[in-house]
Amino acid sequence: MFRPAPSPVYTLRGAGGPLNTLHFSCHGGDTPLLFSGSGKGAIHVWNLNTRRAEKIVEGHSGSSVIWVSTLQETDTLISQGRDMQVCLWDLSEGRSEAMDSVWTGSVGFCQCSVLETSPGTRLLAFAGQQTEEIKIIELPSKTPVCTLVPDAKLGMVMCIKLWQPDSGQGPLLVAGYEDGSLLLWDVTQRSMLSQAKAHPEPIMCLTFDITCLRGVSGSSEDKLSSWMLDRQNNLQLQDDVTLVNPGVSQLCVRGDGKLLASAGWDHRVRLFGWKKLRPLAVLQYHTDMVLSVAFSDHQDPRQRLLAAGSKDHRISLWSIYNEGADTG
């Protein structure tokens, strides 16, 4: 049984375009922030106390912004646009020019993934110029680390996630491809560790919980595919989750590992218990496709929010099951 669906606690308007990507920064400083990237090339920095945009950055020549993030313990914003550029911004000085950029050569929609490997050093993974290649570089030096290309023809790289396993081995990367395949890569060895056919259609999005080595992916179909890594780093497909309507733009697991949110082409956000993928609620507010979802990183669990960005140019913010809820 679904619980009664709540209403948004508030909405943000004025982005001026479809909201492709959202990212919270609420754990440091006095001002909780939400970053959004729009289809018109603008990055908005929303102050969640005033519920207004305190800064607007135009950095991708009007091209759609498909990914934004912040680098830990710095005031550096990182953004990716359809102009084939990844830009780095120093927010501390209030400047509006990018302090550095990386040319990706990719015309697709694959969002970058960033991993901090040591203080001040990070790996950035992105889809490359060739159809199936993933490039990984070191920041801030921009030194190439490796290029990952599968042996088989799998089509475009659609989505990637880079992480550092607890086992002490080098970074791993999971990627979803156009033919519906998932591949697990060992970055240090530049080798493929395992492969699984998760979907019959292109994988549109994936999320991966590094604490339990479990992931879920979505496509244009009416199913979510659940999978995990065993101790030998084999991708193991688990049960599918059937959706009421087809099409998933993005997936996100809350930081406490209790909730999964999906952004639906049917204008809805769906919530599942992450442990058993049990449906919990359907959030209805938007009048067009939901393109992005993100959970806030507030230190106080009672303040945690879920944000959803839509093709209708609006961002909805929701307070969801923050205290002691049974979300299995």
TrEMBL record:
Pfam families the UniProt entry points to: WD40 (PF00400)
Database matches in PROSITE patterns: WD_REPEATS_2 (PS50082), WD_REPEATS_REGION (PS50294)
Gene3D superfamilies reported for this sequence: YVTN repeat-like/Quinoprotein amine dehydrogenase
Origin organism lineage: Eukaryota, Metazoa, Chordata, Craniata, Vertebrata
Superkingdom of origin: Eukaryota
InterPro entries, per database record: WD40/YVTN_repeat-like_dom_sf, WD40_repeat_dom_sf, WD40_rpt
The name this protein goes by in its record: Guanine nucleotide-binding protein subunit beta-like protein 1
Keywords attached to this entry: Repeat, WD repeat
Keyword match Repeat: yes
Residue stretches of each WD repeat: 170-195, 283-320
